[in-house]
């Protein structure tokens, strides 16, 4: 502490859990600035994932299915994840099997562009599947 006072700097504890604790003599404001700069740099390098949603009904027709599949292909080629879900309104929840078959067919047709993270799961009135793009 005396040495830090002589130099006009601050004594900063770097690793308090180490035995003995590690300290450094630095300008504290500059130390904080450098830490924020490193955090910002790490955040900028982190990959940002975009999730696009596609909604189906349990009775979705072939033309609608093909149209939505083409949108999903475009999203996967851009590098976005696709979250496809079947929304069950009212009593249509009795068609759970149709919804699951629809989502499995959707994942199967997008096999060359992306792969599903897991099997379709029922969450309340929605049955969801997430498809991630394949690496190039």
Describe the protein:
- A hairpin with a 6-residue loop joins β1 and β2 (22-26).
- The chain is an alpha+beta fold and 136 residues long.
- The longest helix has 18 residues, at 28-45.
- The protein folds into 2 domains: 2-43, Roll (Ubiquitin-like (UB roll)), CATH 3.10.20; 51-133, Translation Initiation Factor IF3, CATH 3.30.110.
- It contains 4 helices and 7 strands.
- Strands 3, 4, 5, 6 and 7 form a 5-stranded mixed sheet that branches.
Give the strand tally.
Answer: 7
Please outline the major beta sheet: 5 strands, mixed
Global mean pLDDT = 88
| Total number of helices | 4
Structural class given helices, strands, pairing?
A: alpha+beta
Return the string of H and E elements: HEEHEHEHEEE
Question: Hey, roughly how much beta strand do the residues contain?
Answer: 25-35%
Query: What best-fitting shape do the alpha-carbon axes yield?
Result: elongated
CATH topology of the largest domain: Translation Initiation Factor IF3
CA(first)-CA(last) distance: 55 Å
- What is the CATH level 1 assignment of the largest domain? Alpha Beta
The low-confidence runs, each spanning 5 or more residues with pLDDT under 50, are: none
CATH homology group of the largest domain: Translation initiation factor 3 (IF-3), C-terminal domain
Any descriptors?
single chain; Ubiquitin-like (UB roll); Translation Initiation Factor IF3; 2 domains; five-stranded mixed β-sheet; two-stranded antiparallel ribbon; 7 strands
């Amino acid at each position: 502490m005396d040495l830090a006072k002589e130099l006009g700097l601050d004594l900063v504890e770097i690793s308090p859990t180490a035995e003995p604790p590690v300290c450094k003599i630095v300008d504290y404001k500059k130390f904080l600035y450098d830490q924020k700069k490193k955090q910002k740099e790490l955040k900028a390098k982190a990959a940002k994932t975009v999730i696009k949603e596609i909604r189906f009904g349990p009775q979705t027709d072939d033309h609608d299915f093909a149209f939505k599949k083409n949108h999903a292909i475009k999203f996967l080629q851009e590098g976005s994840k696709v979250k496809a879900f079947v929304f069950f309104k009212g009593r249509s929840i009795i068609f759970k099997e149709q919804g699951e078959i629809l989502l499995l067919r959707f994942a199967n047709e997008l096999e060359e562009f992306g792969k599903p993270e897991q099997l379709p799961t029922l969450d309340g009135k929605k049955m969801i599947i997430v498809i991630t793009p394949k690496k190039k």
